[in-house]
Amino acid sequence: MPALSRILPLLACTGLAACGASTEIRMYPVSGPLAATAPLPVIEATAKNTDNASGNLKFRLPDGTRCEGTWASVQPKVVTRDRGLSIKLSGPGGDFGGKTETVGGVNPGELFAVCRDNTQVQGDFVMGSGTTSGTGQATDSRGNTYRLLF
To answer: In this structure, what DSSP letter does residue 54 have?
Structure first.
C-alpha cells in the first residue's frame, strides 16, 4: 500500500497541464465592439504554471473562438551568499551556502495569444511578488480593449 501512495501523485502529474499552479485571468471589455454588448461578456483565461515566471495561456472569445498563447512576468531575484568561519572548542565551523529570494514589490508582465481565426491578443500587467494576483490591460486585433483582473 505505501508504494501505491507514492505512485498516485506521479500518475496525476503525467499530463503537461496537470502539474503546476494555474490562475484565472478575467478579461473585461472596456472599449470596442464587445464593450457595447449587453450583458457585458467576461472572458475567463487560464494561465498555467503560475508558480514560475512564464507559462501557457488559454481562453475562448465570446463567439467561441479558441485562443492560446504565453504569459511571462519579470520576477527580480536576490541571491545572497553566506560565508563565515567560527572557531569552537570542538573544532572549526562556519556557514557556507547561498539562497535565492524573490524581491518584494510589483513585477511587470506581458501576455500574447493567437486565436484560431488569427485574432491576436496582447497585453501588459503587473502582479505582486510571490502572488498570483494582478491587474493590467490587453487589446485584440478586432478593436477591443480589455481590463485584466486576476
So the answer is: E
**Residue 54 · residue 73 · CB < 8 Å:** yes
pTM assigned to the model = 0.69
Scored b (16 or more CB within 10 A) or e, 2-29 reads eeeeeeeeeeeeeeeeeeeebbebebeb
pLDDT tens readout for residues 39-76: 999 999 999 998 888 999 999 999 999 999 999 998 76
CA Rg, the chain, in Å? Answer: 22
Q: Give the C-alpha separation, 56 to 20, whole Å.
A: 11
Return d(Cα 117, Cα 101) in angstroms, integer.
Answer: 42
| Positive or negative: CA dihedral 83, 88, 93, 95 | negative
Q: Which residues contact residue 83 at a Cβ distance below 8 angstroms, ignoring those fewer than 6 apart?
A: 94, 95, 96
Answer for the pair 138, 14: CB distance below 8 angstroms, yes or no.
no
Q: Residue 10: which H helix or E strand, with range?
A: helix 2-12
Q: Is 33 helix (H, G, I), strand (E, B) or coil?
A: helix
Q: What are 108's strand-pairing partners?
A: 126
